[in-house]
Each structure stands twice: as C-alpha cells, then as structure tokens.
Amino acid sequence: MKVAVYYSNTDLRIEERPVPRIGEDEILVKMMASGICGTDVIEWYRRKKAPRVLGHEMAGEVAETGAGVKDVKRGDRVFVSHHVPCHECDYCRRSDYTACEALHTGNYEPGGFSEYIRVPAMNVKWGTFALPETVGYEEAALIEPLACVIAGQDRVRIDKGDTVLVVGAGVSGLLHVQMARRKGAKVVATDIHPYRLEKALEFGADHVFHADEYSDAALKKVNKGRLASRVIV
What is the pTM of this model? Predict the structure, then answer.
C-alpha cells in the first residue's frame, strides 16, 4: 500500500509499505479522507518525531474485520477516533478522560495518510462510529475537531444571550463561532488574517475585529457597553 511519510514540512514522500495485519478484535479500514490538523504543519513539534505517517482525523470503509469483532462489518462506512480513553482507570471513572494514559499512548497504525489503517481493539470498541449515508467522508473528517468544540462549550456553559469572544478564527475557531451562534449567543471573533475574519462572518459572527484593532473599548462599543461573558481562545 502507499503511505505519505512526513520527514519535514518540505519533505513528504509517498512510500510503499505492507498492508497491516489485524488481530482478533481489530479492523482494517480503507482510508477515504483524512484531515490535516494544525499540529501537522507545526514543524518544531512534528519534525522531532519524524519520519512518521501523520493524519488522525480519518474516515473510510471497513475492509476487513477480526473474528471477535461484532459491531461493524466489511463495507461499513466509519469514522475512527485516533485516541480513546480506557474507561476503566481512576481518571476515567471520574470522567477526567484527558488524563487517561491510554488516551495519550494509543493510536491507529500507521496513520491517517495511508491507504489502509489497522484500528486497535480499544479504538474499535470506543472510537469507531458508523456514518449515516447523509454524511460524506470529507465531512466526517471534521467529526474529531467538532467533538472538541462541543466538549469545550459544554464545559464553559454557553447560554442564549451570552456574548462569546472567539480569539482566533481558524477551523476550530469557526466551529466555535457557528456552535455558539446556534446556542443563541452573540459572537465576536478576532484574528490577524482578513480571510479568516470574512469566514467568521459567513459562519455567523455578529462582529469581527482584526487583532491589531481590538480593545475592550471596541468590544463595548458593539456590545451595549459590556465585555464578553465567555472567551474562547
């Protein structure tokens, strides 16, 4: 199979590797779409781990299942989460899933930018979700970042009538803008890129500011003299 191997931001190589073999409780997925995370292009962060196959927002079609797999079958369209908690440790029992060791050490093999991907048993159990026919593979690649937005907004409890200031209108920022607006909040976004500010307005922001022009006074001017009730960075 072909894989895209990262060596540096200017050195990406298409290489040949054997298709991974799966175990009894694992599945093999044919990748159809994989997102590019912001961390994938931060060279100081990624290059020290090179060479490696990146891609951790993957959707595809189940190509093979182990004998012990019951919940998915060959041909199913799925989204697969790259990191999953164990749901058994003390952290998980307290719902502190991001502190779970399994969440930080588990992953699928070799990575999303690969023709075929082995999904470990824990990821099959906790991180594999069937896609309805109305959701395309490219849309499904946004499930993981959208889930992060949903979890974050659940924690800060955004309600109708709140004013939400979103600092940074990249992909996650735009999802925050859209989600907060759907909850009935007034949304203000800032960024340093005019293109992103245009997109923030398209996604539902009530007002946008270039970061160089933002101030408390500017926010109060468009928000009836009030500051934000919630700030998302």
Answer: 0.87
- The pLDDT > 90 percentage for the chain reads 94
Instruction: Report the percentage of the chain scoring pLDDT > 70.
Output: 100
Dihedral of the alpha carbons of 46, 53, 59, 150, in degrees to the nearest 10:
-20
Question: What's the token pair of residue 27?
Answer: 């599945």
Regarding the domain delimited by 2-141, which CATH topology (the fold level of the hierarchy) does it fall under? Quinone Oxidoreductase; Chain A, domain 1 (3.90.180)
Q: Are 210 and 197 in contact (CB under 8 A)?
A: yes
223: amino acid identity, one letter: N
φ/ψ region of 193 (left if φ > 0, alpha if ψ in -120 to 50, else beta) reads beta
The token pair at 129 is 């979700």
Domain ranges of the chain: 2-141, 147-232
- The average pLDDT across 35-64 equals 93
Q: Is the peptide bond before 51 cis (omega within 30 degrees of 0)?
A: yes
- Does domain 147-232 sit in CATH 3.40.1190.10? no
Distance from the first to the final alpha carbon of the chain: 40
Question: Does residue 196 register a pLDDT over 90?
Answer: yes
Which residue carries 């073999």 as its tokens?
21
Please provide the DSSP assignment of 176-233 as one string. Answer: HHHHHHHTT-EEEEEES-HHHHHHHHHTT-SEEEEGGG--HHHHHHHTTT---SEEE-
Tell me what the mean pLDDT of segment 93-110 comes to: 92
